[in-house]
Amino acid sequence: MSGSYTSAAPLRGADETTAGAGSVPITVIEPERTARGGIVVLHESREFPPALQRFMVSLAGEGWIVVAPHLFHRVDDDNVHEVFGQELFDDFDAGFDWLRRRGVFPDTVGVLGFDTAGTAAFLVATNRSIGAAVSVAAPGIVTPLPAQDAALVDIAGDLQAPWLGLFGADDPATPADEVDRLREAAAAATVATLTLTFPGLAHRPDSRADSDSDGVDAQTRIYDWFDSNLR
């Protein structure tokens, strides 16, 4: 069915008798036409802000089933603003498996992540057989984040899925020299990679105004990357 709705995706290895504890809540947006693949959207906020919701709807308008795991479903403390580590990967796998049960082939599944979830999307692309990955504003490039085993520059050559990285020139979490090092390291991978830097912070289709030309360009780059690689 088309439209937006919430559902639950079982976690791998979960006991079916544990109900909610064995699944992750997901928000799903389905295209009106027959889906040509699926995209797991990772995000680092408790709510889906309006700009992110619009972007997810626009991805569905491009023909993708969009699945966004609710990454904070295990955390009751509102003061916790980051989810990372194995639990985030478990939630990605649950979204991936949900898409597979809908008949989506693995090579037509993409992952898109923002901030530390963008780092996770990169890590997913180094050890999961998926069609494509996009990281937006992913930190941990040279110095690993907590619960991140290796810096991105050290594992960029292991990328197994075509990867697109979008960064802001003035983002203190991703200094320009580190982005340059990541671009060089990713170029050694056996898959296609593209690392782009936008002026200021105009690289966030999940938060920029629709009229922002650089934000629109970043969004178009994401569309084009999935168009080219999820086949």
TrEMBL record:
Q: So which residues are the signal peptide here? A: none
The Dienelactone hydrolase domain sits at 28-204
List the InterPro entries.
AB_hydrolase_fold, Dienelactn_hydro, Dienelactone_hydrolase-like
Keyword field: Hydrolase
Pfam families, alphabetized: DLH (PF01738)
Report a single Gene Ontology molecular function.
Answer: hydrolase activity
EC number, as in UniProt: 3.1.-.-
Which residues lie within the region annotated Disordered?
1-26
Which residues span the membrane?
none
The UniProt entry, under PANTHER family, shows: CARBOXYMETHYLENEBUTENOLIDASE, CARBOXYMETHYLENEBUTENOLIDASE-RELATED
Q: What is this protein called?
A: Dienelactone hydrolase family protein
